[in-house]
Amino acid sequence: MSKVEIDNRLLKPGVYFMRGNDASVEGALIAGCRFFAGYPITPSNEIATLMSRRLPQVGGIYMQFEDEIGSIMAVLGASNGGVKSMTATSGPGFSLMQEAIGLAAMTETPAVIVEVQRGGPSTGLPTQVGQGDVMQVKWGSHGDYEIVAYLPNSPQEMFDMTIKAFNTAWRYRVPVVVLSDQMIGHMREKVVVPPYEEIEIVERRRPEESPEEFLPFSNKYLIPPMAVAGEGYRIHVTGLAHNEKGYPTTDYETVRKLVTRLVRKIRDNERDIAEYEEFMADDAKLIIVSFGITSRSAKKAVRDARSKGLKVGLFRPKTAWPFPYWRLQELTNNGADVLVVEINMGQMYRVVREHVRSSEVYNMPLTPGACPSPEDIYKKIEEVYPR
Amino acid sequence: MKHPYLRYLRPENVPTVFCPGCGIGIVMKALFQAFDELGYETLEEFVFVSGIGCSAWIPSPHILADSVHTLHGRAIPVATGIKLVKPDLNVLVIGGDGDIAGIGGNHLLHAARRNMDLMVIMINNQVYGMTGGQLAPTTPYGMKTTTTPYGNPEEPMDTCDIVASAGANYVARWTVGHYLQLKDAFKKAMEKQGFRFVEAVSQCPSRVSSRIGLSPADHIKYYLRNSVDIRKAEELLPEERMEKIIVGEYVDRNKPGYLEKIKMVMRR
Q1: Within an 8 Å CB–CB cutoff, is residue A73 touching chain B?
Q2: Is A22 contained in some domain?
Q3: Domain total for chain A?
Q4: Does the pTM of the predicted model rise above 0.95?
Q5: Which of A25, A30, B80, B96 could in theory staple to A50 by disulfide, Cβ–Cβ 3.0 to 4.6 A?
Q6: ipTM of the predicted structure?
Q7: Using one digit for the tens of pLDDT, what is the confidence trace for A309-329?
Q8: A68, A73, A85, best to mutate vs chain B, most B CBs in 10 Å
Q9: In this structure, what are the phi and psi dihedrals at residue A378, rounded to the nearest 5 degrees?
Q10: How far is it, in rounded angstroms, from Cα A353 to Cα A350?
Q11: Which residues have a Cβ under 8 Å from the Cβ of B253 and sit 6 or more positions away?
């Protein structure tokens, strides 16, 4: 852990009234982000717009690229140059970035991607809300790899989770996604910037060995220290399957060790990485699983249900990946049923069904373009509540 | 005695993976001679970035320097990211025609337009060699490839022309038969700011030379016979130009590079 580098142009500790997308920018700068590359896309534009103004003020570089592929690749270049870097996009741009996300996972290049979801599929609903990218975040690129995705449900969490995303990316050397949505991105709300000394900032672990002795992808570590370009390590970074020196290989045993490590570095640490919030869930007979903007309607629906004597609770994953399944299992061990509410046709619903085997799991399939009201969710609660 | 240019290579990755008779060896030697003549004992000041294809394997895993082997067509944006955060390093992109001009063509166009402070070496063997010799955007009209068995119906692109028009500071094309000119172009490009593009037309013995019944040496001779200097090319009719390989410097200017331009707009 290091301290926030005090720069009088960073957003000072205090209470602000801010848009979610803007809060993400200020969080990123406090986390140490000094490079942003992006391409215009609704509803994430405010992030690039504010970055283009703010980054030069803190000694960083902003650049607009010819497309989202160029943007994410430049982010990976800057990261391999030793600078914390990020991009922001929405569904269509995120689809274009998938090959690069696989490259980042394979080369263990940290990067942060803020994905402000809109309605899909395809061009879909550029200005309207959707939560249909839960699965794409996890499975978008080919092959086996693990990444992390945070699920903010307020401008405050856009701020907090962007900082966390940088910490997780640089701690585990993985691409990390802040999976927001159009409503959270555009919402204005109170954002508290805590005193800098209370903010945890993680830097990359640097090699201790000399360039001659250093093995950049050593299996001695779950997460090897990272050397960057220009430090004299003569790094060799490749998306090809590689040995501990980083050189291409087709040797089965070497590749097995590499791919296993790439997956294990997240799976072995899933309980440290995953986060969740619970609301009246302990004694609940029906637990609503919801995230992002829908979790706010769901919370109100839980209160309404409680006022009518129905034992309903909320379990809000704050990370989609890794999914905090163990806690949900504990909460449902007593036989509590689950209702998944998300603006898609049943994506997190599948994950919940995978882990909750002892009780009923319902969902509320929703097409994109609108957030369900607390009343909509309450109606569904009445329909499925165990009597 | 050790070859003096071995100091630029990762010893554990020599010999290289290239086919016997491939023009890449000539390009590598010209590049190393350029480093040597410019006085670089090591390549600590360089970062090499490549995409996918045979030519991308020149730096990765062979050249003893920081190198990043990226995705097909995407070396230029990665190189841009590195250059912007490490402006003191010389960032070199090496790739083939399919990688740089085909799938990566949009990045090439915009990096040239920005006059981004990068040097790009494009080795043009006129096909996708690694995957079996398929049609490339640089394949001459009428040429048979594995995916144009009746001949190529498309007109090839003159990548140098496009990059020069887009705004690059330095653009040159030579064949691997023009060894000294190629080496000098590398040297000149290395010493300049902004976007620098050197195309090396090279034989692919496995996918092209053998199909047209030429030995690698005869293929180089064919390139030499078929080359015309850019100053003389202007006198040719368009259909005559198409038959020829135009060699020489397309452009050599000293506009401010992108890094300088950032400073210029910030000062305003």
Answers
A1: yes
A2: yes
A3: 2
A4: yes
A5: A25
A6: 0.96
A7: 999 999 999 999 999 999 999
A8: A73
A9: -60, -40
A10: 5
A11: B169, B170
